Amino acid sequence: MISRQLSGKLTELAKGFPVICLTGPRQSGKTTLVKSVFGDYAYVSLENIDTMTAAKEDPRRFLAPHQTSGLIIDEAQRVPELFSYLQGVVDSSGQMGRYILTGSQNFLLLEKITQSLAGRAGILHLMPFSASEVEAAGLLAPSLDEVLFKGMYPPLFDRPVSPPDFYPSYIETYLERDVRSMKNIGDLALFRKFILLCAGRAGQLLNLTSLGNEVGVDHKTIRAWLSVLEASFIVFQLRPYHRNWNKRVVKQPKLFFYDTGLLCSLLGLRTAEALASHHLRGSIYENYVIAEHIKQQYHSGIRPSVYFWRDQSGHEVDLIIEKGQTIQAVEIKSAETLNSGLFDGLRWFCGQAGLSPADCALVYGGKEEQTGFAGRVLSWPRAHTL
Predict the structure, then answer these.
(1) Which of 46, 145, 161, 184 could be stapled to 78 by a disulfide with Cβ–Cβ 3.0 to 4.6 Å?
(2) Global pTM?
(3) Residue 276: helix, strand or coil by DSSP?
């Protein structure tokens, strides 16, 4: 089994919170992780119809057998009635790490946590594997295109299933089990079209009106649907950096996917070789590097603080990472050959922001580590070290 970076933080929080809430996309390994870390806990899944019915009809009786032992409740958001009872139990017992709640519908689970367990629950997010986790297990593909195409969902590493088989089934399951249950999603066919159009805009500035016109719905519906994709850990928005050195800075966010394998599937790519010549390869690589940093932060128990910079004159830096009172500027280029022109955006931004080369990094598509231009140079296998 591939070791998960989040294990240590999960154990740490269980010492200081009576309830631990672990969210993340479907098939990211949440159940496997909590069973591994809390091996002596009882386990119930509320996706089981009989178990869910029992929990709904008599929450007290459902929890009674676990009054003195730890309990893992999978897909806990399916029975919101439980949360008020959990509050009473943890307040009276004072026992830390007693309940481990997992769920893939982040917005529903966190809503119930906020209502009933605020201050009592430690919240963590488990994403698909990071490249560092896969590399530590000796399973990272040698080719960048293979890594981008395959993605990082655990089933692709622990059973014989190919990306072209896994991802379409994943999307079907997501649509049927998560999206269909949401009252603000009426037409699944339109929502499917929306997801495909989002894939074609990965790495681009997000224009809600333009996207709505293509889908055939208004911008308010697009905004609501985007919130569904974000809460399900399918996509995230990268906001423009808020420091206003230049009043002509763009205000729109960029759209990215948490996993490039899923992105490649939505773009209709069937092989890693097809990716090599795809017109969006540069954007897919940019997506990969940014998503890897975000996963590293989440798996360390840290909320990512990341942005991009672009002004209306065309100056741009792909990634701005806030680190306390300082920032790091990162340029992302899929080219395999280094040249000084790759640093043009960083040079311009450093002049505006007063950064030194030590605060700048270039993550490129080659494998050689080099220095001597205008900042740190990282090869794609070292993208996670930002």
Answers:
(1) 46
(2) 0.94
(3) helix
